[in-house]
Design brief:
This protein has 407 residues and is an all-alpha fold. The protein is 80% helix and 0% strand. It contains 15 helices and no strands. The longest helix is centred in the middle third of the chain and has 56 residues, at 137-192. The radius of gyration is 20 Å and the shape is globular. It starts with a helix and ends in an 11-residue tail after the last helix.
């Protein structure tokens, strides 16, 4: 406690925001894996499983747009705590008797979870902008990379946790245990998180929901296709393929995807070093374009490897490792650029608009993941992923150059 009290107020708030984000992310990753694997064993088709996440993604789009407005008016502490509380409620909705777990009920619970997730993420990412001076762009890049990377590493742990809890406690027991732990985190957050963090000095109007910044609009469009490219094969198609085609059990599917996400998060945290921060460089539009163009070759290579009859396990594992590393750098670059481009007063408006595009890309990718896999297989999902990444690279050409950084 002495070491914690010796830290600056900004660092203490950063640690609180990050801790909240970590706790939420564990339950979010675990819940996704629980739903995919549990309902697959109940005989749901890939398209039906994708439909379970439909409201999760749709309400994520709406929440990011409206949540940025609420964060600017109410403060980011409130939107973050609302997100934690809604996630507890969403988890409790899934503890009802099995006969009540209809598609409509699960979609409703996923809708609440989607709202919760994006309120939490928007609040966490926006908060960092307010804790680092504009003159210290290198520090901003490092803090964003650490937050984003650690979050995704813990999401990977959540994937493994979901598979493990399903095997050990069953679906209801696993969800109830997560709800109890997250409720304790939520109560602590209500007490400790700084009041009025991120509240705009002037009350934003509802028409301010749509970004007026050309750079943010372009970056948002690139983000849409970038995350659509990942989720079009990763969300439904990949875990179902590993389970039904390769015959992996819950532990193997959850463990492998967890390891992938953990490695992905570690690379995200290291992205400032990979992209040249040690040499005094921070990313700009050219960086986003170049890294996206490099990424586009990976899903195409995996699809070709599967088509020509290569070992599916070798092709997928090797391809996924490379794809994860390159995608992590792309994601970290984007996460830094949006926080850097956003205006400080009412920062959540710009960040919320950007993550609205992120959620829309995830929605499109999720729906395509179930439908395309069911009708055309994993290779078709990978070719769509390739096209989406190429579109992200082309859009990124129009991004502005960034000013030189200071540390």
């Amino acid at each position: 406690m002495k070491a914690l009290s010796a830290l600056s107020a900004e660092v203490r708030q950063y640690l609180l925001v990050t801790g909240n984000y970590w706790a939420f992310t564990l339950t979010d990753g675990a819940l996704r894996m629980l739903v995919v694997l549990h309902f697959h064993t109940l005989g749901y088709t890939p398209l039906q499983i994708a439909a379970l996440f439909l409201f999760y993604e749709i309400f994520g789009v709406i929440t990011n747009l409206v949540g940025g407005y609420l964060g600017a008016r109410l403060g980011l502490n409130r939107t973050m705590n609302i997100g934690l509380g809604l996630q507890v409620l969403a988890l409790l909705m899934l503890t009802v008797p099995a006969a009540w777990l209809t598609i409509a009920w699960v979609m409703g619970a996923q809708a609440l979870s989607g709202i919760a997730k994006d309120l939490n993420k928007m609040s966490a990412k926006s908060s960092i902008k307010l804790l680092v001076p504009d003159s210290q762009q290198g520090t901003l890049y490092k803090w964003v990379a650490i937050l984003t990377g650690s979050k995704n590493a813990l999401k990977g742990v959540g994937f493994f946790l979901g598979g493990a809890l399903l095997a050990l406690l069953g679906f209801t027991g696993a969800v109830l245990a997560m709800a109890a732990v997250l409720a304790l985190i939520w109560l602590a957050s209500l007490v400790l998180l700084k009041k009025d963090l991120g509240k705009a000095k002037t009350k934003p109007k509802f028409r301010d929901l749509l970004s007026k910044s050309r750079a943010i609009n372009i970056l948002s469009a690139a983000r849409l296709f970038l995350f659509g490219a990942r989720d079009v094969w990763f969300v439904v198609a990949l875990p179902v393929y590993l389970s039904s085609v390769l015959g992996w059990d819950f532990w193997w599917v959850g463990g492998f995807l967890a390891a992938w996400i953990i490695g992905y998060g570690m690379v995200q945290s290291l992205a400032p070093h990979i992209t040249g921060k040690q040499r005094g460089q921070v990313p700009d539009g050219r960086s986003a374009c170049a890294w996206a163009a490099l990424l586009a070759s990976l899903p195409a290579a995996i699809a070709l490897g599967l088509t020509v009859g290569g070992s599916p396990q070798l092709v997928l594992i090797g391809g996924l490792m490379l794809f994860g590393a390159l995608f992590a750098v792309n994601s970290s670059l984007h996460s830094y650029l949006i926080v850097s481009y956003a205006k400080e007063d009412g920062v959540s408006l710009d960040v919320g608009f950007y993550y609205m595009s992120n959620a829309l890309g995830r929605l499109i990718g999720t729906l395509l993941s179930g439908w395309v896999y069911q009708h055309h297989g994993l290779e078709a999902c990978l070719w769509i992923s390739t096209v989406f990444v190429l579109l992200a690279a082309l859009i990124s050409i129009a991004l502005p150059k960034h000013a030189a950084a200071t540390n």
